[in-house]
Each structure stands twice: as C-alpha cells, then as structure tokens.
Inverse folding.
C-alpha cells in the first residue's frame, strides 16, 4: 500500500492507468517477486521439456555412459545410476514426460469433465441426480485410490487399447519426440484425465446451475434454439474462463499424480525416464538407502518439487492480486489436498 | 442434537452400500480377474474357470455381493449367512484362503496410529504458526511462516520420505526399526521403539496437511481479528493473549476444522505412499497390493473401511461446530 502511495506522489501527472502496458506489468512483477520466481521455475521446466534432446549430454536411456554409481561430477552433473545412465539427462527428459502427461491428462479431464458438468447442470432433474450420485461415490475414494482403481481397469500399458481395437500386431518400438513407450504414456494420461474429470465436473456443474437462470438462455430457447446449440453457443463460452482456470489448478496435481503412481510402480513402464519412477524403482531406492547413492533419487525429486513450488507460488500471487486482503493466506493449496 | 447425529448415522448406510457396490461392480466388469493373474502366462481356460469357481467369481453378480455383505446365504459355507454384517470380510484370492478379517485386524492399528499421529503433528505444526503470522502480519515471523507453508506444500511426501531414510541411514546410521520386515512393534509392548518407527512417517505425512492448516488459520484469523467484538475486547484493555486465544481463535477455528475433516482423505491417500516407502505393513500397502492383484473382496473391504473413517470423521467435525460456535444448532 505504502509503495503505491509513494508512486503517486512521485508522478502525480501520470496516474497508473495511463502507464504503458509493459510498465504496468513491471510494477505488478515488482510487487509480487515470489510469483515471478514461481513463473520462472515453470518456464525453466517448460524450456527443459521443449528442448530436452538439445540440452542432454547423453541419451537418457543409454547405459554405461560413464562409470556406474558415480557421484556428481563435471561430466555427469547429477551423477550416474547403477546401470551407468546419466541422471542429469534422465531428469531433463523427465520434464518432457511430466509436462506431456500433465498437459494431455488435463486437456482430457477438462473436455470430459466440462461435458459431464454442463450436461448435468443444464438438464438438471434425473440426469443430474444420477450423474451427481456417481460423482459423489467417486469422490468418496481418496484420489490415489481412485487412480489405482482406474489403472486396474484400463491398465498402464497399451494392451487394453489393443484389446479394444482387436489388434495384436506388434507396434514398432519407435520413439516419438524422443519419448520411449509413447502409447503407454498416453494410456497413463487417460487414467489421470478420468480422475481429474470427476473433480472438474462437480465445479463446472455448479457454475452452470447459476448460469442457466440467465435471461439470455431463456431468450435463446424462446427463439427455438436446441438444447445442444444452447449448451455449445451460450453456456460453454461463459464457463470457458472457469475451465481454463481449473486446468491450471489441475496441471501440478496431474504432474504429482503421475509421479506418485510411477513411484508406486504402476505408472509409466520401467526404464522410462520419469521423475516418479526414477525415485521409486527398487534398485534406485536400494542404492539410495543402503549404499549412499543419494543422487539417483535426490535430483528427480528436486525437479518435481520445483515444478510444484512454481505453480504454488504463481497461484498464491494470482490470489493476492484478486484479493489482497488474504495476502499469502487464502486457499488451501490445491495439490496437497490429494494426498501426494 | 441427538436426532441430528442419529440421522447422520443412518445416512451412512446408503453411502457405504453405494461405495462398496461400486467397487464390486468395477472389479467384476473389468477384463482379467485375479484368477488370470494367479494362473499367469500360458494358462488354460479350464484352470481359470476352476479358480473363478473357487473364488465365487462364476456366480451371479448380485449373489456374490450379497454373500460378501451377509444378506445372501453362502453356499460354500453350508448356506450360512457370513458376511460383513456378521463381521466376516471373506477370504483373499491372492493369498489363497487367508482370512481378510485377520489381516485387517493386523493392519488397521498400523494405519490408525500413522493417521492419528499425523493429525496431531499437523495441528501442532499448523495452528500456532498460523495464529502467530496472522497477529503479526508483514513481520519477519509472518514471512518465515508463509515461506515454510509454501515449501511444505510443494515437496511431495513420498520424496521427503525417501530422503529421510536415505540421508538418515547414510549420514546418521539410522534406519527405522524393523525396516526389513515391516512388522512394527506394538505401542503397548515397547512404546519407545514404536514411536521411533512411527515418528518420521507421521511427520512426513503431516507436513502437507500442516501447511494447509497453517494457511487457512492465518487467513481465517485475519478475518476474525477485524470483527467488532475483537475491537471491543481490545478496547476493554484485555491482554493480547486473552484477545487472541480466548476471543478470536475459537471463531477462527471453524473453517480450519472443516479443512481438517476433508484432509483425512489426503491422509488415506498419503498412507498408501508413505507405508510403501517406510515398509510399514498397514492398510495402505495392503490396498496397493490388492488393487494390483485384483483381489476383489480385499479391495471392497478396505474401500468400505476407508470410506467409513472418512465419513465418520467428517461427522465428528460437523458436531464440533456446535461446540465452537453456540449459535450453530442442529435441529
């Protein structure tokens, strides 16, 4: 508050609203240094995800890139694991896998969740009751239990997709964008997406319930618009902003969820350079606990914590900007609610 | 009040039925039963059929659920009613013939102790710093509390757990007692060793929840401290301690209590991860193994118990609102 007052005294002839856009952004950034730090963390990880194949010194899956179980050194900044893979390369590639799974699962969750939420809120009555009781029962499970159950249903590799397609031809083990086991990773994203959709459906339904009482919905109906048209042209655009916000809230949760299930060994296939599976696979865990080879679990987890920290700090800053009274306090911190 | 509690307890029954029935339905519909997994690769259809008959998976969908619940006579056990209602959770598929009830009796105390200790840690670590940062906003203490809470929120509990064991064992030569076997000493046999086993798992599990409680306490206290009655208390010349702890805190605790109730879900989810890292033979680890092994009756029973705990704790939370704020009455 004091800073703003001082600003006005210094330059009384140029009120803040007249300042150029970049200057306003700069002021906002100066007022929220932690938010900027959070944004930088996210941008750093996104940069690593985009340019992973340019950054990494070794192929993340290559064995014996140097001496095995070697501590951090110049040629291997994060050390090597018991197979001689370079932990630095695996951690950088982990960013790509985390971001890919996060984005795919959140997109899927938002599409599925808003479709169910809009239908449930718009139609009301019987459809709404059935859908909401289903959501109630699903939300009674802790998130990770629900995720485990979904994975038990659709599996954590592409075999269920093949059964569905009735196709047993071996798919060539090609990499796509440097990512091994690409199809399996999409299946994992689907599982996380379904879990996210359940939570998103509830929120979107709530918004639609109040939205559909608006006069313009009634006007559209009076003009003879079909239900589908009203939902697509009048309801959807009005909840679009909410869906985007929900997506950014769910992104770190999805990344954490992937890490948690890969950590438990039911996520990405063994050998995939994912942060969760690098921390959780038994040989790395044994090495870290019994033999002092801490770097194989330390750095992947550090990267994961950095992403979550980034999203938390950025989220806090957004909340401060929209409601300065609750500075640093409001909200309950989305990610930890799920128990990861 | 008594009527309200009875009504809420009655409402438990349909929720429990729905949750367990949905688990049952899900596991019966999905392809690949426990029989396929036990039989393994290269197994014949006859073997699978035999196993499924042994497990009762060949029976009618509703019949099997009814037998597990105890409202349908179990034809394997001489047409007796033996199910959850009679206190018998059935037999495991994966460990053939093992009584689920026995296993539950062994795993329940481990998870219960883990969760209770975590809740205590979360409240102790969460509420006092939250209050402190709310009554001294903008100070160094406030900043430290806020930084701490963001840090605790951001570090995943399974990562912290593995770091505790890795650094503890390598730098201090400390491993959780019975780390290899996972059979924790019971608290009445050797309280000290029991606490040594459970201290770090509960602490690690509690940090994320403590951070949530800390943030909510802070914002709720800030809100309450602006109220007229707090100003009245100040103007009466009361000491800060009296104003904060006697007048403000009780009202600020209502939303905090709500979030504690909701966080029990996070505790259950976290116990799956933490028990797996610290090798504790609790219900979370049991659940993980059973979901992977498609052990239908076990998953059904565990989900039922977890849902029961979750709903009961939230009922206790709802009841305690009336104690915190006498204006709240349940008719």
């Amino acid at each position: 508050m004091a800073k703003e007052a001082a600003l006005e005294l210094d330059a009384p002839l140029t009120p803040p609203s007249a300042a150029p856009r970049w200057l306003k952004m700069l002021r906002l950034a100066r007022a929220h240094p932690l938010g900027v730090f959070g944004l930088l963390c996210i941008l750093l990880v996104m940069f690593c995800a985009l340019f992973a194949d340019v950054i990494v010194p070794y192929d993340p899956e290559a064995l014996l890139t140097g001496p095995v179980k070697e501590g951090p050194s110049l040629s291997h900044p994060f050390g090597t694991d018991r197979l001689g893979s370079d932990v630095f390369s695996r951690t950088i590639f982990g960013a790509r896998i985390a971001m890919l799974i996060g984005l795919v699962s959140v997109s899927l969750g938002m599409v599925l969740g808003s479709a169910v939420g809009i239908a449930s809120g718009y139609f009301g009555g019987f459809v709404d009751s059935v859908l909401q009781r289903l959501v109630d029962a699903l939300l009674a499970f802790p998130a990770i239990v629900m995720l485990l159950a979904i994975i038990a249903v659709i599996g954590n590799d592409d075999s269920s997709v093949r059964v569905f397609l009735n196709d047993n031809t071996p798919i060539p083990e090609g990499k796509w964008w440097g990512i091994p086991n690409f199809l399996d990773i999409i299946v994992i994203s689907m599982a996380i997406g379904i879990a996210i959709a359940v939570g998103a459906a509830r929120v979107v339904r709530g918004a639609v319930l109040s939205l559909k009482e608006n006069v313009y919905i009634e006007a559209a109906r009076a003009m003879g618009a079909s239900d589908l048209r009203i939902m697509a042209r009048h309801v959807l655009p009005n909840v679009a902003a909410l869906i985007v916000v929900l997506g950014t809230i769910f992104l770190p949760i999805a990344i954490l969820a992937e890490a948690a299930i890969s950590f438990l060994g039911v996520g990405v296939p063994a050998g995939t350079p994912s942060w969760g599976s690098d921390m959780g696979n038994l040989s790395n865990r044994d090495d870290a606990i019994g033999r002092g080879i801490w770097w194989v679990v330390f750095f992947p987890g550090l990267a994961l914590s950095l992403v979550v920290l980034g999203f938390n700090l950025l989220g806090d800053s957004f909340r401060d900007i929209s409601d300065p009274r609750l500075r640093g306090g409001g909200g309950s911190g989305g990610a930890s609610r799920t128990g990861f | 009040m008594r009527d309200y509690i009875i009504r809420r307890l009655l409402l438990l029954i349909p929720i429990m039925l729905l949750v367990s029935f949905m688990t049952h339905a899900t596991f019966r519909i999905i392809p690949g039963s426990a029989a396929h997994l036990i039989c393994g690769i290269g197994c014949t259809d006859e073997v699978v059929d035999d196993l499924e008959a042994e497990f009762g998976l060949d029976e009618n969908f509703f019949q099997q659920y009814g037998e597990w619940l105890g409202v349908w006579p179990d034809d394997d056990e001489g047409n007796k009613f033996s199910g959850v209602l009679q206190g018998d959770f059935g037999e495991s598929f994966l460990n053939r013939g093992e009584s689920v009830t026995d296993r539950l009796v062994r795993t329940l105390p481990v998870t219960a102790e883990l969760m209770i200790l975590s809740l205590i840690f979360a409240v102790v670590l969460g509420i006092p710093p939250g209050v402190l940062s709310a009554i001294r906003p903008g100070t160094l203490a406030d900043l430290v509390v806020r930084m701490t809470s963001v840090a605790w929120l951001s570090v995943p509990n399974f990562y912290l757990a593995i770091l505790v064991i890795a650094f503890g064992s390598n730098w201090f030569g400390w491993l959780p007692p019975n780390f290899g076997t996972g059979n924790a000493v019971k608290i009445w046999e050797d309280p000290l060793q029991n606490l040594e086993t459970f201290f770090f798992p509960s602490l690690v599990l509690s940090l994320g929840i403590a951070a949530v409680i800390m943030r909510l306490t802070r914002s709720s206290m800030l809100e309450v401290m602006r109220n007229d009655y707090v100003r009245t208390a100040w103007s009466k010349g009361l000491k800060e301690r009296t104003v904060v702890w006697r007048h403000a805190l009780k009202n600020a605790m209502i939303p905090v209590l709500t979030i504690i109730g909701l966080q029990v879900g996070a505790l259950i989810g976290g116990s799956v991860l933490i028990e797996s890292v610290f090798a504790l033979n609790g219900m979370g680890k049991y659940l993980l193994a059973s979901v992977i092994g498609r052990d239908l009756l076990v998953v059904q029973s565990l989900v039922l118990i977890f849902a029961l705990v979750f709903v009961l704790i939230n009922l206790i939370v709802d009841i305690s609102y009336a104690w915190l704020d006498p204006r709240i009455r349940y008719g």
The mean pLDDT of chain B is 84.
